[in-house]
Amino acid sequence: MEKACNFLLLATIFYLFICTPARFDATDALLPGQVLSGNHTLLSKNGAFQLGFNCLSPPCSEFTFGIWYVNSSTCKALLVWDIREDDEKYVTLDPWASSFSLSYGYLQLKSQFSPNYSNTIWSSATGMEFISTCAVALLLDNGNLVIADQLNSSLLFWQSFHNMGDTLLPGGRLGVNNPYMSTARTMSFACVNESYLHRNPKQPKGFTIWHSFNCLVPHTVQYSGTFPSWMDFLEDENSLFLSNNSDLYLRLHSDGTLTAAKLQGCGTLLWYAPISWQKVSYYVRDKSRSDKSHFKLVLTKTAIGVLMLLVLTGLSLFLIRRKWMERPLICKNALIVFSEAHIKKATKSFSEKLGEGGFGCVFKGALPGFSLVAVKKLKCIAQAEKQFRAEVQTLGIIRHVNLVRLFGFCVQGRARFLVYEYIEKGSLNSHLFSKCSTKLTWDLRYHIALGIARGLSYLHEECRECIIHCDMKPDNVLLDSEFCPKIADFGMAKLLCRDFSRALTTMRGTIGYLAPEWISGLPITHKADVYSYGMMLLEIISGRRNSEKIKEGKYTYFPIFAATKINEGDAISLLDPRLEGQVDIEQMNRACRIACWCIQDAEDHRPMMGQVVHMLEGAMEVEIPPIPRSLQNYIGMEDFSYSVDADSSL
Q1: Does residue 141 have an active-site annotation?
Q2: N or C: which end of the chain has fewer CB within 10 A?
Q3: Could you write out the three-class secondary structure of 116-136?
Q4: How confident is the model at residue 478 (pLDDT cuts 50, 70, 90)?
Q5: Assigned CATH topology for domain 1-17+331-422
Q6: Confidence of residue 620 (pLDDT cuts 50, 70, 90)
Q7: Is the pLDDT of residue 274 over 70?
Q8: What is the pLDDT of residues 123-154, one digit of tens each?
Q9: Phi-psi region of 438 (alpha: psi -120 to 50; beta: other; left: phi over 0)
Q10: What residues form DSSP beta bridges with 279?
Q11: Residues 136/29, Cβ–Cβ less than 8 Å
Q12: What is the pLDDT of residues 405-423, one digit of tens each?
């Protein structure tokens, strides 16, 4: 029963999200469902490279599919990457009976004349990975064909530069162990020549070519050398790569010869590596050995080979099974559904805790393609389940620079995890009220206040459904490395359809930031967030908590003191003393007035967050606000947070 419920929950979450395709240049991008056939091609933005069908030499009776260098007006198209099938040099196809497409995140080349029942000649899939259905194929200006995420084009799932044939283009890399260039593929029972080009880390600009002459009689040789000094090769810890500014390409031929030619020079030969082989392994049968001894040797080697094959097969199955269990799945809206094993591996078994709240703990982790992430591990309580659903429903469908991004989640048994982008500088709360944190300048505070306002304006006024955050406070605002604010923790958020102006919901959030109508048990609108923003803006200005009491003749609740000073025109007395008066007076007065307007008793008197943005930007005038009298009701109340599980609408 529990498994059925979990499956139903996961299916429901998948259904909630729809992939929103990004816009790409139609000439260099292949979207899911689009097909290249006949004379249809992709052209890189700089016009140098073309993906499609072309002929190697006239007359054009046979066509090859691949990436072609077409930037020269005087030279024929140069094939720089192609699709190989078994041991053939090139695959020749009928362009009008063949198609190249992107489906389920994989590239596929199909032909009506393929002997394969699926008509598939080649696919970028290896069977070991799972790529987002929200992917796009792009032909880059350096001739690299990549599969990228539509929402984040820097996230690459596959690229032709890591699956090279016999040509190395500028930007392509040579590794130590990975043979990026080979001129043939070895079939199970056929003998073909093959060559591999590696980087040689023992020499500056060093390389090594391995060449096998025959697979029946092992005879492997190598040639080591260095690239000429005039070649613009760069070197790092792991690889050797040709600079993107180079106007040449390298080609490894089937006999092991390496040549360099100009891209724009019609293949003009500039350099070649002579064949001067040094034997590294050699085997010839000893004619004097008796047939009986030879038979025993062959039998022993066969037994050892079978045993090694069984061990390798078992090990491969184990690794495949483990990788399958740890692999992430992709939702239709590009949210990733992680397994619990994948989460544990990313966080090193939850070894580095970033923080802890009422519903769970947050841990630092690292995931391939995402760099650092923050993983929230929710507690197994009813409120945590509701928070989990609220976060996925809200952050899963929205994107904004001032909102923390949700990468994915995990639903496995009773375990619930949320995976967010990692925000380097932590919460605004730690910078405003911590004695050991660095001082926030006035310019940074104003920048942060404006960014928070823009994020709330997006939630209230620009999303398909109005989203009320319901728990706005400095603890739930994170700062990245550039001090750009990002609103976080949507576990108490409320979605409000545009057909409804307000919602009746049980009180949630933090005392000191709650609007008076909510405390009174009345239905709320997005103006409840405006009230919380106003309270938080006073804290940003003053550097003191709004729950504090100050001595002004008698002990006074700080927001009442602030509203009085703003009304009297003495806003400068509210400034954080750590700023030592270093402030833009006009901005200071404007921010204080806005804060006081946001915390008015009547929600109709509070501005929209879009208006707050315009006022902070100086596009609207801000009059002196009245003093909100209901603040006096908060005197004596403590600052505490609580949540209620009676509201089941999320």
Answers
A1: no
A2: N
A3: CCCCEEEECCCCCCCCCCCEE
A4: very high
A5: Phosphorylase Kinase; domain 1 (3.30.200)
A6: very high
A7: no
A8: 887 654 555 667 899 999 999 999 988 887 78
A9: beta
A10: 221
A11: yes
A12: 988 888 888 888 999 999 9
pLDDT confidence tier of residue 177, bands split at 50, 70 and 90: low
Query: Helices marked H in 152-191 — which ranges?
Result: none
State the span(s) of the chain assigned CATH 2.90.10.10: 19-158
CA distances from 314 to 83, 129, 305, 320, 354 (A): 31, 20, 14, 10, 40
> What DSSP string describes 207-273?
EEEEEE--TTTTEEEEEEEE--TTS-EEE-SSEEEE-TT--EEEEE-TTS-EEEEETTTTT-EEEEE
More confident residue, 566 or 186: 566
Give me the catalytic one of 28, 471, 475, 489.
471
Q: What is the mean pLDDT of residues 256-260?
A: 86
Of 37 and 327, more confident = 37
- Taking the C-alpha atoms of residue 607 and residue 456, their distance in angstroms, rounded to an integer, is 12
Rounded to an integer, what distance in angstroms lies between the CA atom of residue 87 and that of residue 605?
77
For the record, the structure tokens of 406 come out as 């949700």
Strand partners, 278: 222
Q: How confident is the model at residue 592 (pLDDT cuts 50, 70, 90)?
A: very high
* CA distance to 124, 168, 251, 320, 330, per residue, from 454 (Å): 42, 47, 53, 46, 30
CATH code for the structural domain at 19-158: 2.90.10.10
| Nearest one of 154, 55, 155, 51 to 107, comparing CA atoms | 51
- Could you tell me how many helices (H) and strands (E) the chain has, helices first? 11, 40
Q: What would the mean pLDDT of 522-541 be, rounded to a whole number?
A: 94
> Alpha-carbon distance 489 to 378, whole Å?
12
Q: What is the pLDDT of residue 431?
A: 92
Q: What is the DSSP letter of 625?
A: P
Mean pLDDT of 82-111: 80
Provide the token pair at 410.
């995990």
**Residue length of the chain:** 650
**Please, how many CA atoms are within 13 Å of residue 112, restricted to the half-sphere of its CB?**
6
In 3D space, the residue among 525, 526, 531, 527 whose CA is nearest the CA of residue 513 turns out to be: 531
Which fold would CATH assign to domain 430-650? Answer: Transferase(Phosphotransferase); domain 1 (1.10.510)
